[in-house]
Amino acid sequence: MSENENKIVIPDLELLEAELEREKYKKNYGRVIRSTVFFLIVVAAAAVLIAVLVLPVLQITGSSMADSLQDKDIVVALNSSRYTTGDIIAFYYNNNILIKRVIASAGDWVDIDEEGNVYVNEVLLEEPYVTDKALGNCNITLPYQVPDGRCFVMGDHRATSVDSRNTAVGCVSNDMVIGKILFRVWPISEIGTVN
Q: Are 75 and 101 in contact (CB under 8 A)?
């Protein structure tokens, strides 16, 4: 054998340092990718929990809340059991979510005349959000007292809304309320608080 065949080639120091840097980069790159994916999963899970439990995002379907809310509007609700007369709430009804306005609370007496004027405890309710008053689809006996643990709700488009004036929906149980509608996020031209 010749002397050249038995020689072992030893890489120089620069080559070794370059290879070491490449291995460190691969290791760090993998760690950064794993931590980024983990972070994104945690953020997504937190966003889903917040959206479901604290600030549900809902899309309006139908015209029962016109002119306040239109079909296809997207709104954000605050998960809360506190609401007062005039608040717009979302609630469960027969595996659906309905959105109506609170008119009266437990123990209050509700009366509606033929022109659609609403009286709560014999006081005319000021309703600047209603453009066309109507008695609507009413099959309850008036005056009507709201049962304990419930609230009386009506849509703003009184002629077409099916709500607490009809026994099909009735008064809403407090435990069925999802939350109070606070903010409209779609369409962009209408972004803002909901009154």
A: no
Task: Report how far Cα 78 is from the mean position of its chain's Cα atoms.
Answer: 7
- Can you tell me the distance from the alpha carbon of 25 to that of 17, in angstroms, rounded to the nearest whole number? 12
Q: Report pTM.
A: 0.68
CA nearest neighbour of 65 among 172, 190, 163, 182: 163
Q: Which helix (H) or strand (E) holds 105?
A: strand 96-105
Residue 2 φ/ψ, nearest 5 degrees:
-85, 165
Tokens representing 52? 């479901």
Enter the tokens of residue 24.
Answer: 């460190």
Host H or E run for residue 42: helix 13-49
Q: How do strand 150-154 and strand 144-145 relate by DSSP bridges? A: unpaired
pLDDT tens, per residue, the chain with 195 residues: 555 567 777 778 787 788 888 888 888 888 888 888 888 888 888 777 666 666 677 777 777 887 888 788 888 788 777 788 888 888 888 888 888 999 999 999 999 998 889 999 989 988 888 888 888 888 888 899 999 989 999 988 888 888 899 888 889 988 888 888 887 878 877 776 777
Given CA atoms 93, 68, 66, 76 in this order, what sign does their dihedral have? negative
